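Annotators were shown the component list below and the corresponding predicted structure, then asked to write short factual statements about the assembly.
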Amino acid sequence: MNATQSRRGVLVFFTLAASVTAGCTAIPTSRFDLLAESGESTLKAAENVFSRMESIQLVECVVRARTKPLSEDVFKPGDLDLAPRLRLRQSTLEVLARYLELLKELAEKDFQGDIDAASDKLAASAKSLTAQLAPSDDKLSKVGGIFASLVEAVGAEIVREKRIRALEKAMSRAQRDLVEVCSLVSHDVRELKAFMGLMKTRIYSNFDAVRPQEKDYARLVADRELAQILSEFKDLGDALDGLGRAVLKIPDAHQETLQALETPERPREALKALISKAQQIGKFYQHVK
Amino acid sequence: MAHELAEQLAGLASRVNNLAVNHTGDDSRTFFDLQNQLIDLSEKAILADLDNEAASYGKALDGLNAAIKFIGEAEDSIANVSQAIQLITKAVGLAEKAIGAAAKV
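Structure shown to annotators:
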């Protein structure tokens, strides 16, 4: 192969690289970070609220037992036990958090190993090509090095494109189910809040029924305890409201992240690197003419 | 779904609590006991997976609505205490059947 043919080869390769990178898209990794963080923080908030709800249910059990004879089981919630319901919702939110975490992993995973293998092969073949061309000409031998850099930029883009398509497919499929799951959890949170309201009413009215006389010190003790319990109900109500709102935001954030994937953005750094290499090759050709 | 039944149970419980406060003696204690039963049932209704198309569900709602209508907002004591207690007790029984039916499914 003569110098003219080798120059054509370089130009063809560069054109191919440019066309492959023309439609390339950057992965909005910060959005995936935020999505995963929101899933994790929602799960943590739910764990905290649910744990406190189980504690306050014990207070209700004591109040319910007020008019019953004592036994080992009298303070158990029986068929009014919130725990199974809370566990189920916590497990649901855990699945949600793990799904968002997996998306983040997929978006950020470094597939460098795959790129290295492909670029090594092409660099080796480019070197082999240049080795056949005027071995004494050290300017031409530099083409091999430039090819390897291009492959690294192009290869990374190809892997990135495949990853983006995979993420788009997975997220598109999941979107509707995500909306439904979050809606169910939000509805459930409202029901839990209604349950809390009933617990509060029962506790309040029973404390009222046995409230010590005005002149008794015991009244202050009982009132203080009730005040603490009512304050906890207020906090739990607010926490449940916050949880319900947080859960409902997740599907929109998921959809926005999916849309960000589908909107092509030029990866500035990779393109700059390609342009720089192209300029280097252009200057190189001015020398060899 | 147990939304409406649980809501009506809670609504009646709230009114019966007002009656317990606005009356004295045995009437107050009776209303208080009925309130606790209604709260129990309302909590069970939230936790249970009720079929709102079941006949027992509809009857329970009717019973609750009748009691609520008779009592009104219960901001004061009411004249016909015995009829109020009768309607509330009937509503409790019907709600127990509806919730019991769901538990067996």
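Statements collected:
1. Chain A has one domain: 28-288.
2. Chain A is about 85% helix and 0% strand.
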